[in-house]
Amino acid sequence: MENMATQTQLTWYGQASFKIVTPQENVLLIDPWLTNPKNPNGKADLENLKRVDLILLTHGHSDHIGNAVEIAKNTGAKLVANIDLSTAMVSVLGYPEKQATAETGGHAGGTISLLDGEVNVTIVPAWHGSFVQKDENSPPVFAGPPTGLVIQIKNGPTIYHTGDTDLFFDMKLIADYFNVDLMLCCIGDHFTMGPKRAAHAVELVGPKRVVPMHYATFPVLTGTPEEFERELKARSARAELRVMKIGETISA
């Protein structure tokens, strides 16, 4: 039987929201919209977060920032994001300033060493947009460029979270610099690439496994895992497709 305690654990909360627990039991959240409409246990999941060390954000849209500020205030989690987004999170949304510093902020191409070297996060480009908004009646504030994140975990996997993005050919450069074990890939269409272009992205990156995300949360997000699987097969992609259920935890 596998020793689950020493493996990296990945939980999906829906949309682009994931929790990673590292072999040293550090807790990372990515785009933590736990209370999204497809997560029936969102409020309980939020209440049960007793420890979060880092919150990683790809961009400023509300379905990715989600519950980040509340979680940060409750847990002391530090913010990992491009420095423009980090600044906007503090000035517009009230993220605790001492938890969102240049120590954990960076920009595209930069690698940030975190948690005594157990985790390295490299900020990579994405094709999308990014703004933050105090409330629906307030004007949007530009929050820097959108990003993806490559997360390298000591004695664990290398995980690429695409963020919200279209397909772009420079994704191939990720494969030149990283051996990606797990790709968390948007497939929903309308606001991001759909299944056909997402399958092409997988071909460029060459991960061992791929988990589809950012689909079915709203009616306009029409991409499906079934269509994604067909497109992967059409490209003879070698990545193993792993479709997660909301609330499910797997070994990454």
Q: What is the CATH domain class?
A: Alpha Beta
Secondary structure tally: strands: 16
Indicate the percent of residues in helices: 10-25%
- CATH superfamily, called what? Ribonuclease Z/Hydroxyacylglutathione hydrolase-like
Average pLDDT: 96
Q: Indicate how many domains the architecture comprises.
A: 1
User: What would you say the CATH architecture is?
Assistant: 4-Layer Sandwich
Task: Give the CA-based shape.
Answer: globular
Radius of gyration: 17 Å
Structural class: alpha/beta
CATH fold topology: Metallo-beta-lactamase, Chain A
Q: Please trace the helix and strand order, writing H or E for each element.
A: EEEHEHHEHEEEEEEEHEHEHEE
What is the CA–CA distance across the termini? 16 Å
Strand content: 25-35%
Tally the helices: what do you get? 7
Give a verbal description of the structure.
This protein is of the alpha/beta class. It has one domain (about 5-250): Metallo-beta-lactamase, Chain A. The protein has helices at about 40-45, 60-65, 70-75, 85-95, 170-175, 195-205, 225-235, and strands spanning about 10-15, 15-20, 25-30, 55, 80, 105, 110-115, 120-125, 130, 140, 145-155, 160, 180-185, 210-215, 240, 250. The strands form three sheets. Strands 6-5-4-3-2-1-16 form a seven-stranded mixed sheet. Helix 6 crosses helix 7. The longest helix is centred in the middle third of the chain and has 11 residues, at about 85-95. The protein is globular, with a radius of gyration of 17 Å. The mean pLDDT is about 95.
